Amino acid sequence: VAYECANTLIQLSRASSAIRAAAMCYCQLLINHSDNNVKLIVLGKLEEMKAQHGDILKDMVMDILRALSSPNVDIKKKILDIVLDLLSSKNIEEVVLALKKEVVKVDDLSESAGEHRQMLVQAIHKCTVNFPDVAGAVVPLLMGFLTDSNTVSAVDVIYFVREIMETNPKLQQQVLELLLDVFPQIRTSRVCSCSLWILGEYSNTAEEVMTALEAIKECVGPLPFFHTDEEDGSVKVDMAESVTSVGGGSSSGPKILADGSYATESAVTMSAATSFMSSPNLRALILACDYFLASIVASTYTKLVIKLMNLGSAGQVNKETAESMLYIASLLRLSESGAVSHSMDLDSKDKINVCLNILTNPSEASLLEECRNSFAAMIEEKHREEEEDKKKNAAPVVQPDDLIDFYHLKNTQGMSQIEMEDAVATDLSRAMGVNTGSEENGGEEKVVQLTGFSDPVYAEAFMTVHQYDIVLDIYVANRHDETLQDVSLELATMGDLKLVERPSPVTLGVGESAMLRANIKVSSTETGVIFGSLVTGDIVIVLNDIHLDIADYLHKKSELSDASFRSRWAEFEWENKVAINTTIADPGAFLDKIIKSTSLQLLTPDPSLEGNCGYLAANLFTRSVFGEDALVNISVEKNAEGELVGYVRIRSKTQGIALSLGDKITLKQKSLTA
Question: Among 3, 222, 247, 625, which residue has the fewest nearby CB atoms (within 10 Å)?
Fold first, then answer.
């Protein structure tokens, strides 16, 4: 009852007091109601209100955030999406404080803990991008999650820290100190890689450079990485600490060396059953054959030593250069020693060799400027795209020649206070050109011819699609020279469609026509077919099939982060692989045609698609009105004959949308021409 009252109040009045009362009612339902479906419906209403009454909802942000106590991940995501669009300088501090408390309260033992923390970290990230002043309050808290066992959550945190370092120079020293404190406990390769890049790029003073070098040496451990056993000549990995064997106990007692002394470090031959959790973090990852990380370690050594050449004394520089070259050479020797399971890949080996060449000839050190400039350009491009999205979603500007309505010159005699507020709000929304949403909810309308012109009865269907419903208004006309009794329309469906209301039979005189109506429910994003016949007496007319377009059930605007795309790509089990078969010769033009002919949203940034190299790989995404996600990857290249070859791969959690979207793309390919 409360929900219906709030809906009615919004429809009847635009007064600020009425809107505020309705919003308060929605917030109470959101907090107090236990049914998740009700909460999702209420959040949908708040989403609609946000577009027209955002200023009023900004005062209720904290009430909406109270609903984050719900364990449902979808509800939490919707709440955060709404709140992030309602941020202002007045409520930002309260919102960030509430999000910090939520991050601390996340239960690590629950199944959705990683996803929940990831959403909260991303929300805090957006807050700090829009309001940089609050970054200092959240960075110390988030740095503690770099050691999180959930890789995706930890990677989000380090990406956030990396962007803060570039956009907020005042926090660089504080963040570097916190990062150096937590760095030895990081056990994830991707987080270690990004942390090393930050240390190499933002250590600017001699003291910071020396501290970073010492921290990296401590995490790599002492040299060498391996040694040869004097007794049997076998090559053994030097763990720098005791080893833990999977499925067995700890390592045996102290080792006795050939000279009769005790070994202080345990050394074992590399095997699949050995884990390196007791070794320093970088050493453990490198001995596990993470050569990409090894190349980043070499690159960081090189950057720090080159910086030290401009800051430190000659003796100090020579010492650190020699040590760095020794560490880098040891990385190359490790992969060729036979002590590890496989040798280094060529790409990583080339990068390490480049680092050695730069240390021997520092004048060629372009490594320092190019990487930092590329990252700054990427951040600038990201912020520019966000600003463009804001402009697209902004309310239309009033034209210079629009009429000005002076409220004080209106006749308000006999009107109550709420009626006067309503009149003002209505006039204001008209003046600002605010869309009431009636056009968007109108649905897609199509006309389909069902019979031929020479048939005794001519029929055509006027199809209106409203999210979960399809309304068929069928026009029938008697072209026979006799009156037709009991003309009935028999319909059947294929796919996830259900006929709710069958049209009643009608009698048509010569030349007469009538309108029949049928209602059909849709339950999933699957290609459906409506077929049937017109029956009257001995006459049976088979109707043309009505094929439902999957594009009618896909949101026109869908967004997904790159990290979420990758995690869902690995998670979704249904895949549909469509071979590319088109006459278009340009990969970029093919991608544009596919995007225009479907409701897919391009996730790959524009700078990544620039240029003309003969091949292209792009990620796309869409979401249906039923909450089904579809991930699309287009990989295409031009062969020697100038034709495009490749595949469009579609992944989803359900089979229906993957198959339907694949059929749609296959059908559109045939009609695509250069």
Answer: 247
Residues 460-505: tens digit of each pLDDT: 988 777 666 778 888 999 888 888 888 888 888 877 777 777 788 8
Closest CA to 497 of 519, 474, 475, 517: 519
- What count of residues does the chain have? 674
Find, among 265, 285, 253, the residue nearest to 222 by Cα.
265
Q: What is the pTM of this model?
A: 0.64
What's 313's DSSP letter?
Answer: -
Say if residues 286 and 294 touch (Cβ distance below 8 Å): yes
Report the 10 Å Cβ neighbour count for 23: 24
Checking phi first, is residue 370 left (phi over 0); if not, alpha (psi -120 to 50) or beta?
Answer: alpha
State the DSSP H helix or E strand holding residue 61, giving kind and residue range, or none if neither: helix 61-65
Contacts of 74 (CB under 8 A, 6+ apart): 36, 40, 627
Give me the phi and psi of 447, to 5 degrees please: -115, 125
Asked if 523 and 627 count as a contact pair (C-beta separation under 8 A), the reply is no
Residue pLDDT, tens place only, 164-212: 888 888 888 888 888 888 888 888 888 888 889 888 888 888 888 888 8
Question: Which 3-state string (H, E, C) describes 233-295?
Answer: CCEEEECCCCCEECCCCECCCCCECCCCCECCCCEECCCCCEECCCCCHHHHHHHCCCHHHHH
Report the candidate in 529, 531, 520, 523 with the shortest Cα–Cα distance to residue 549: 529
